[in-house]
Design a protein that fits this description.
binds nicotinamide-adenine-dinucleotide, two-stranded parallel ribbon, alpha/beta, Rossmann fold, globular
Length: 316
């Protein structure tokens, strides 16, 4: 089966590409490398350096004739979306519409979309939060993801395009960018490995649901195979506070650093944790990597990466 994946040079997308290629699929990537990295691109995938908003996207669809599209390309920073909602909407709503229009015109059978679980429910009163909980995003990023979910429903009803939207919790693992604005695991790990004090904003008691990227890639693969349409939470159902996360990483990296305290961040959610029974019942998916194990893998990866980057800069 031929698959087209947008955002396949990014953190989550590149893991999905690797898994699909390992499973024998023929994969093409569209990515503008705004946050994605060339080094993440699997050499067995065909790569198009292109913006999803571009009218040239239709040429890629024409050439590739994908049966399924995985739409991961996005502006991923909640903070950026609050600073510039229009720029966020251009990427995350209009860009997605260009992908969807091409899916219909080129007779794609199924689309898989990475939505958000963390930013979809606001400060929910039910924890872990199920998919049936009212969607009340409090950021333009969350609003845009919800809007695309509505468009998916529209294209399904009117044009028969099959879809799965995965509302991802806080994804972490190898290849996450420690210099980006999202990804507390990567940011803390990098700081601890280079001997810097990480900052915890607010009390540190705010909780998140951390899910390992390898588990997310498996969920995407299962969503492709099951004959189902709909929306699924993808997380662990386990809450971990930012303070607990820091302590776990400090132990794994054998660091002596203490945290610096920063001010509360305006509008930051106190608790976030997803109920994932639907994904287990319908997709046959549940997470296989406990937090401690996933964190060790992430730390090992970042250790190797930072020493090879140091070597490269010495050679220059
Ligand atoms: N990381 C998380 O915890 C998390 C949680 C929920 C949802 N998501 C969603 O998962 C998807 C992947 O996120 P990620 O964490 O891998 O981020 P990422 O920034 O590593 O990946 C996004 C990729 O999309 C590309 N891209 C961005 N805008 C583009 C455009 N206009 N045209 C073409 N390519 C473009 C980037 O270059 C990058 O390779 C996103 O849709 C994100 O919203 C991520």
């Amino acid at each position: 089966m031929r698959i087209l994946i947008t955002g396949g040079a990014g953190f989550i997308g590149s893991h999905v590409v690797d898994l699909l290629i390992q499973k024998g699929y023929s994969v093409a990537i569209v990515d503008n490398l705004s946050t994605g990295k060339k080094r993440n691109i699997n050499p067995r995938a065909r790569f198009y350096k292109l913006d999803i908003k571009s009218p040239k996207l239709k040429e890629v669809f024409k050439k590739e004739k994908p049966k399924a599209v995985f739409h991961f390309a996005a502006q991923i920073s909640v903070r950026k979306s609050t600073h510039d909602p229009i720029a966020d909407a251009k990427e995350n709503i209009l860009g997605s519409l260009n992908v969807l229009e091409n899916c219909v015109k080129h007779k794609v059978k199924k689309i898989i979309f990475t939505s958000t679980g963390g930013a979809m429910y606001g400060d929910a009163k039910v924890i872990p939060t199920p998919e049936t909980y009212p969607t009340r995003p409090v950021s333009p990023y969350g609003v845009a993801k919800l809007t695309v979910e509505h468009y998916l429903h529209y294209y399904h009803k009117i044009y028969g395009l099959s879809y799965v939207a995965l509302r991802l919790a806080n994804v972490y693992g190898p290849r996450q960018d420690p210099f980006g604005e999202a990804g507390v695991v990567a940011i803390f790990t990098n700081a601890l490995l280079i001997g810097k004090r990480p900052i915890i904003y607010g009390t540190g008691k705010q909780t998140r649901d951390f899910v390992f990227v390898g588990d997310v890639a498996e969920a995407v693969s299962k969503a492709l195979h099951r004959k189902t349409d709909g929306i699924f939470n993808i997380g662990t159902g386990r809450e971990t506070s930012v303070q607990e996360l820091f302590s776990a990483l400090k132990k794994i990296t054998a660091s002596k650093q203490e945290v610096r305290r920063g001010p509360d961040r305006l509008g930051e959610q106190e608790r976030s944790c997803l109920e994932c029974g639907e994904a287990e019942n319908v997709l046959g998916w549940n997470p296989q990597n406990p937090l401690e194990q996933g964190l060790r893998e992430t730390v090992d990866f970042m250790r190797i990466q930072s020493s090879s980057m140091r070597r490269e800069s010495l050679q220059k």
